[in-house]
Amino acid sequence: MWREKQILLAVLGVLLAANTVFFFTYRLRYEERLKDLDDRQAQAESKLNLQRTARIAAEQRVVAYRTISRDVQDIYTRQWATENERLTALISEVKRLAIASELVPKSISYARVVSAGQTSKRTAAEIVTITFSVQGNYQQVRRLINLLELSRQFIIIDQITLASSQDQLLTLNLQLKTLFRDTDRVATKEL
To answer: How many CA atoms lie within 13 A of 48 on its CB side?
Structure first.
């Protein structure tokens, strides 16, 4: 019986061999394709993670920029307000700090300082100096200077002159400096 169907068996054997060869080559190629796809997926995920990190960093920079911009605007509008908006509050603050340190100035004077940059109108700020004298002991003088440095107002201690007398009293001459927005420049900018 086997001899009669030898051709059929040979054809079946050839088909089985062909199927076996096809199966193994397809499987190897399929595994290679799967591996390539896995590699491409890993690369795509890596790129995605890099892009996410870059996006998060960019968002953080935008938030930081907006915060800085808001802070600069706050300083510009409140700390560097125009002279009309802030001078009275500044002088009141200086008097309050002097009284808090148990020193009372007899008089307070102020003057505008014109610098070379302001004469050509390249700056948008005016410099104003505030000058006064007080008498007291060392602790009072030290407390006044500390309070001025910690003040919420924008005050720069420009000059300090200290003189002592024989009765342990110190005479402190202070010259403070502050900046105000130039009202002419502000009006021009707003137009």
So the answer is: 6
Structure tokens at 90: 């500044």
- Say if CB 101 and CB 139 are below 8 A apart: no
Q: How far is CA 187 from CA 52, 105, 191, in A?
A: 44, 35, 6
DSSP 126-175: EEEEEEEEEEE-HHHHHHHHHHHHH-SS--EEEEEEEEE-TTS-EEEEEE
CA distances to 42, 86, 140, 141, 149 from 146, in Å: 61, 21, 10, 9, 5
CA–CA separation, 53 vs 41, rounded Å?
18
The reported pTM is 0.53
Most confident of 113-122, 123-132, 133-142: 133-142
Q: What is the pLDDT of residue 187?
A: 45
Instruction: Please state whether beta strands 125-136 and 108-113 pair in parallel, antiparallel, or not at all (unpaired).
Output: antiparallel
The amino acid sitting at 20 is: T
User: Do 128 and 112 touch, CB atoms closer than 8 A?
Assistant: yes
CB 125 within 8 A of CB 179: yes
Tokens read off for 76? 């510009």
